[in-house]
Design a protein that fits this description.
- By secondary structure, the chain is mainly β.
- The protein has one domain: Jelly Rolls (Sandwich), CATH 2.60.120.380.
- It is about 5% helix and about 40% strand.
- It has 1 helix and 9 strands; from the N terminus they run ββαβββββββ.
- Strands 2, 4, 5, 6 and 8 form a 5-stranded antiparallel beta sheet that branches. Strands 1-9-3-7 form a 4-stranded antiparallel beta sheet, with no helix packed on it.
- The longest helix is centred in the N-terminal third of the chain and has 4 residues.
- The chain is globular.
- The relative contact order is 0.38.
């Protein structure tokens, strides 16, 4: 099993209704079809967030000129003490892919994103 970490380089503490990109294959400088080239099937994101927000997943067929939202918005509640919110995404089919966080009405006082890519197609139990 191959796995590697992806560094989140966005806003440290997203503010009121701020949209931040957690990961974007185009902006990160990955080549087109990087998931296929690097044999990445899934992206796992672990968030520690003190306030609610929304995750949105997008794909692009033209290197980010046009982004199409893949799934409905995913509402994320504030994390419980000493835990994190975990989300798993199948990315293998996409030429380019990005994941954004839209912050809720209250600025974060605690926010971190751990992102990992893996070649595992099926979610492990």
């Amino acid at each position: 099993m191959a796995q590697f970490q992806i560094k989140y380089v966005g806003t440290a503490l997203p503010g009121n209704a701020e949209v931040v990109t957690l990961f974007d294959t185009v902006a990160s400088g990955w080549g087109a079809n990087a998931f296929s080239t690097l044999q990445v099937s899934r992206i796992y994101v672990a968030l520690v967030n003190s306030q609610a927000g929304t995750l949105k997943e997008y794909k692009s067929l033209d290197r980010g000129v046009t982004w199409t939202q893949i799934d409905p918005d995913r509402a994320v509640a504030a994390v419980a003490a000493n835990s994190e919110n975990g989300y798993d995404y199948l990315v293998a089919p996409y030429q380019d892919w990005k994941l954004t966080w839209t912050n809720g009405a209250t600025p974060q006082t605690l926010f971190s994103a751990s992102i990992a890519a893996t070649d595992q197609r099926v979610i492990g139990n």
